[in-house]
Amino acid sequence: MRAVTVDPGREEIGLADIPEPALASATGVKLRTLEVGVCGTDREIAGFQYGSPPPGDERLVLGHEALAEVVEVGRDVERFAPGDLAVPMVRRPCEHLHCRPCRAGRQDFCQTGDYSERGIKLAHGFMTELFVDEERYLHQVPYGLRESAVLVEPLTIAEKALAQVWEIQRRLPWADPSAASDEPGRGLSAVVLGAGPVAQLGAMALRRRGFSTWVYSRSPAPNEKADVAGAIGATYVSSEQVSPGELAERVGNIDLVYEGSGASKLAFEVLGVLGTNGLLAFTGVPGHGPLAEVDTDALMRSMVLRNQVALGTVNAGFDSFEEAISDLEHFSQRWPDAVRALISARHSIEEHRKLLVGHPGGIKHVIAVAEGA
Ligand SMILES: [Zn+2]
Ligand SMILES: [Zn+2]
After folding, report:
1. Strand 28-38 to strand 130-134: parallel, antiparallel, or no bridges (unpaired)?
2. Which of 5, 91, 92, 309 could form a disulfide linkage to 279, CB 3.0–4.6 angstroms apart?
């Protein structure tokens, strides 16, 4: 069967013919890949910056943002039957007995760094026709999300960040107790940095919870990303036209910053205008750009005197996947056009190269692996 693979040793990417996987355990599930999203991580692996094949293999099958259909289940599988839609998790636990997060099923907080990640690190990904996974790493997706569930994995980044935001902000009376329980962010202001899929899905999650939401990204409006922000009731502001200081004047107290672009200089400038009791969550992974100057005295003074928190967060656990699926159902009903607009185009598996090494533009590009998908 066909697979998009990277050979880091030979610095080659391409379509390979690999053997079909077979069920190897009673709790295993065999799935047919329907769609795989392409993101910056795939592009960096295709640029040989990181990414490692499974032990004993020279090639790594790419792809970690998948939607698939169950074709076969092991005899002890309880939650899935053939025909069900499923989204797989990305990270698998390390094997160290002393790694408390991994032993508790929270490998997104793995302490040792010896985890594996499908399509990224030491485990094959999903840019292939069939794959096998353990039931505990799979999430059931309603059929109504067939067109959008490829966005579940990028949305889990925001879900994990938000879960931590609520946990941390229990340190003070933060949410308005009179706000409706499904809109605990009402009366609070959030700024989203970036306007790519992780940022826009984060903006949707914030809007759903009632935050006044600002999407702060480079390109001046009008553009397709500003249109998505507008459609979900967020305010789009270009960082080329409005400085962080001016942004803070418009927003008022910035209660939360959800960083989703990996642009570190801008993120630290915005940390400098974060509001009282505010929290900034970094999710982007910057490359190695030119050194930027930061006024460390001003930043530290502000963080201390205003009780601020800066938080880094990566990957996501089981609950964040379930939350993402539930949120995506809400988004798809409330903002169907905006959700559709996040997926710029679907491509055949043969077109992988232009998505991995070219400059396709747009927001999210998807490889439709299954024929007729
Ligand atoms: Zn990704
Ligand atoms: Zn671990």
Report:
1. antiparallel
2. 309
- DSSP annotation of 179: S
User: Is this model's pTM higher than 0.90 or not?
Assistant: yes
- Cα separation, 303 vs 274, in Å, equals 9
The pocket of ion ligand 1, defined by CB under 5 A, consists of 39, 41, 65
Residues with Cβ within 5 Å of ion ligand 2?
94, 99, 102, 110, 112
**What type of residue is 188?**
L
The domains found in the chain, sorted by start residue, are: 2-141+335-368 (3.90.180.10), 154-312 (3.40.50.720)
Q: For residue 157, give the ligand nearest its CA.
A: 1
Residues of the chain with pLDDT under 50: 373
Distances (CA, A) of 301 to 292, 295, 305: 19, 10, 6
Centre of ligand 2 from the C-alpha of residue 359, in Å:
35
Element housing 257 (H / E): strand 256-259
Distance CA 186, CA 126 (A): 39
* Rg value, the chain, Cα: 21
Distance in angstroms between the alpha carbons of the first and the last residue of the chain: 17
Ligand in nearest proximity to the CA of 126: 1
Task: State the distance from the centre of ligand 2 to the C-alpha of 88, rounded, in angstroms.
Answer: 19
* pLDDT tens by residue, 236-271: 999 999 999 999 999 999 999 999 999 999 999 999
Cα–ligand 1 centroid distance for 179 (angstroms)? 34
